[in-house]
Design a protein that fits this description.
Layout: H1 2-20, E1 23-28, H2 31-42, E2 49-55, H3 62-72, E3 89-92, E4 98-102, H4 109-114, H5 117-122, E5 125-130, H6 136-139, E6 144-151, E7 157-162
Length: about 160
């Protein structure tokens, strides 16, 4: 009976934590809809800093979502928002600055520290990180919005936003 109570308590805590996590789910049927989700996520951001950690396989739409975040921050269209795969970071000026990291080719976390990652996450602005699993030790102490992108069809995606990492 004790094991049953422990299981019940653990399950109850998981349910409570899930409710507290403020999870939102979106279904995108096209690249434009994925961009719109990103725009909606950033449109109301006013000051301070926000870190978005984007999880998903290659082609899941992480960079499209980032383009939407840029649009919501009123970053001019003449900036070509693309993935900084070979440079690790791209910076864009808008209503709030956007710091876009792509850690796909990151050697180790020391490389990230060398380019001043800790300074970026403390600045006023928005930090978007593609492939954040490569920097988990650096992210665990931050207030991070986790976004999972799942491929559900040729052009469709499920986008799951968790306000609590």
């Amino acid at each position: 009976m004790i094991n049953g109570k422990k299981t019940f308590i653990v399950l109850s805590l998981l349910i409570i934590l899930r409710k507290l996590s403020k999870e939102e789910r979106y279904i995108s049927s096209s690249p434009d809809e994925t961009i719109n989700v990103g725009e909606n996520l950033s449109r109301e951001l006013r000051s301070g800093s926000r870190v978005f950690a984007l999880y998903g396989t290659l082609g899941a739409g992480k960079t499209l979502l980032t383009k939407g975040i840029a649009r919501g921050l009123q970053i001019p269209d003449w900036y070509y928002v693309n993935s900084p795969t070979f440079t690790l970071i791209n910076e864009y000026e808008g209503r709030l600055p956007l710091y876009h990291f792509d850690l796909y080719r990151l050697g180790d976390q020391d490389d990230l520290l060398e380019i001043g990652f800790e300074d970026y996450v403390q600045k006023t602005g928005v930090v978007v990180i593609e492939w954040p699993e490569k920097a988990m030790d650096l992210l665990c102490s931050l207030d991070v919005v986790r976004i999972d992108l799942h491929i559900t069809g040729e052009k469709s995606r499920e986008i799951v936003v968790n306000m609590g990492f």
